[in-house]
Amino acid sequence: MAASNGEKSLIVSFDEMLIDFVPTVSGVSLAEAPGFINAPGGAPANVAIAVSRLGGRAAFVGKLGDDEFGHMLAGILKQNGVSAEGINFDTGARTALAFVTLRSDGEREFMFYRNPSADMLLRPDELNLDLIKSAKVFHYGSISLIVEPCRSAHLKAMEVAKEAGALLSYDPNLRLPLWPSKEEAKKQILSIWDKAEVIKVSDDELMFLTGSDNVDDETALSLWHDNLKLLLVTLGEKGCKYYTKSFHGSVDPFHVNTVDTTGAGDSFVGALLSNIVDDRTILEEEARLREVLRFANACGAITTTKKGAIPALPTVSEVQTLLNGN
Q: Where in this chain does the record put each Carbohydrate kinase PfkB domain (predicted)?
């Protein structure tokens, strides 16, 4: 599925983009933090920038507040080579904010300010359908499923992308504090499960969605559906597992000095999608898929070595340096 005239095919990310406020010191509560650094974030936007940083073509579709933060975020996408043609601005709602606690092990806890935020107000009639139709891969999360009208916009965008022949890629990116209940989160995340052809979940998300305490093959395969081409379970510092119709296995991690895990999963997804967007046969050949997943693991690992997601997303040369050293 190579793009014409040598140009890479387009990957479109859909969902939220926001500002993360990260404490200037790790291992303290939000109340104890002496100060905060503002860091652009939002998983689908991180994925788009990860793709671009690796030399791919990416666009973002979503809604931001018509405020300083919203225009700053749109500018950051453009600065990082991501098309902002799919962005709408809302004059009546603010750009979403999240305060992020960095624990001493680099893991995070979140407190969100969205009452409502602009991303929640995206309507189906505001979608840039031409941009979505031009995608070879359409990637999305689950946060836009929480409330209307953005839920209907999400479903419409998926439908249009699928009809145009795009590969549908889903990373639920579970953020329980945003949902009214655990039951509603599980119900809505699974409501679009059988549409996606590539799904990535973390080990914690796997346990949440299945109700199991195990991260084994049987548990993972309970989430398999007939439309799926690749199911991935990321295991943090333990690498990842992969499942296809024909084979399954695991890929070892890279050991690095972890500072902040923000964006590691998004970096992993961006690396995977940028490698398969023009050659889906990789999903059917285990040796080639394992190489791509090794590359994706390296991207995720590098992203944990700096604070913040977007500044830490690696270039191809940075990834090759890590790969060559292992």
A: 9-315
Q: What is the spatial distance between Cα 108 and Cα 85, in angstroms, rounded to a whole number? A: 31
**pTM beyond 0.90:** yes
SS in 3 state form for the chain? Answer: CCCHHHCCCEEEEECCCEEEEEECCCCCCCCCCCCEEEEEECHHHHHHHHHHHCCCEEEEEEEEECCHHHHHHHHHHHHCCEEEEEEEEECCCECCEEEEEECCCCCEEEEEECCCEHHHHCCHHHCCHHHHHCEEEEEECCHHHCCCCHHHHHHHHHHHHHHCCCEEEECCCCCHHHCCCHHHHHHHHHHCHHHCCEEEEEHHHHHHHHCCCCCCHHHHHCCCCCCCCEEEEECHHHCEEEECCCCEEEECCCCCCCCCCCCHHHHHHHHHHHHHCCCHHHHHCHHHHHHHHHHHHHHHHHHCCCCCCHHHCCCHHHHHHHHHCC
| Catalytic residue set | 266
Q: How far is CA 40 from the centre of its chain?
A: 14
- Tens digit of each residue's pLDDT (9 = 90 or more) over 25-80: 878 888 888 999 888 989 999 999 999 999 999 999 999 999 999 999 999 999 99
Write the single-letter amino acid at 234: T
Residues facing residue 58 across a β-bridge: 11, 82
First to last CA, the chain: 31
Q: Which pLDDT score is estimated for 1?
A: 32
Distance CA(110)–CA(41), nearest Å, equals 12
Phi, psi of 9 (to 5 degrees): -75, 160
Structure tokens at 13: 């990310």
- Determine the Cα–Cα distance for residues 240 and 242; give it in Å rounded to an integer: 7
Which residues, given as ranges, of the chain have pLDDT below 50? 1-5
Beta strand 230-234 with 240-243: parallel, antiparallel or unpaired? antiparallel
Q: Using the structure block, give the residue that is written with the tokens 């999903």.
A: 283
Tokens describing residue 210: 């299945």
